[in-house]
Amino acid sequence: PLFVFLAVLGLAGCGGEEHEQHAAAGTGTSVEGDWITVDAGKVDDTAMFPGTVIASDRSPIASRMMGYVREINADEGDTVEKDDILLTIDQSDVDSQIRQAEASLAKARSGLANARSNYERFKRLYEENAVPKQQFEKMQTAYEVARGDFNAAKAAVEQAESQVSYAQIRAPFAGTIVQRNADPGQLATPGQPLLMLMGSGDREIQVEVNDQAYERLAEGDTVEVGYRTTEGAAATFQAKVLRLVGAADPITRTHTVKLNVPADIPLRPGNYVTVNIVLDQKPAITVPATAIHKRAGMEGVFVLDDENRARFRLVRVGQRRGDDVVVLAGLSDGDRVVVSARDHLSNGVTVTRNPDNQGGV
User: What pTM was computed for the model?
Assistant: First the structure.
């Protein structure tokens, strides 16, 4: 927590023996070094999720709604394109649900209008001291209840209408139908495989993400994926979001996301990867990792005062981004931070510019 960190800063700056020893040892000495002037910029707030490379050769085609199969537009051996309509589910039940929801909405709308009229009438009478407060509050409560009923009925209509889009089942990618498990007139239930579609053998990444990361993604977005080469070196590539599964796993409360693997990336099914998803952007200060020092188990940097004397200051660090480190607390815009020195840094030493690098900020 921030107040704990500030308390640590206060204790570190209030006469710690180690700091006084550094100050005494550094007074009157100088070292060559380089420094930068920091300022806050926007950095990505990124979450990392483990993923697995899978083969995308086969994918079951199922319905998201219950209903009878009305029409099948593909048979075994047929080649289909992405978004082709494969099956159509009878939506009579959905249409009935929509009509019932609309009837309930009309009733709730009428009730809301009546409750609003009574509330406004009793409000005027109450302001004129013509009715007791208890009677006015009763009308007020009735109005609030009617408004809640109306909102619930409206949501029910929207939910029922959303089921219409599930009546047509489309091909998620181009491929060949290799198995057919349904016939017209058969009852389809959610999750029941009706067709099996085989793709072109492309590889995909399957990753489970939380609600926050899921809401930041859309089909076609690109995200950074990290992996290890056969030599063990760290590498990254940009992967495109292919599919998003809206229904969360009831146990893990996570959503399944599928990403593509470019043809030139040497990954095989079963390989482990890390998927980095940007959740937000936030202001933060970054410094080179070489600027971070540890004193008594605590992390800090050396900041120059007006006379170019180094002063150790505790900081709270965040994620590492390449060769830089995000500093969450402890630095302000305009601080001059020492990023390298030829000799040991300590409180009170004067830092002079390294003659080999006169172009520092």
Answer: 0.41
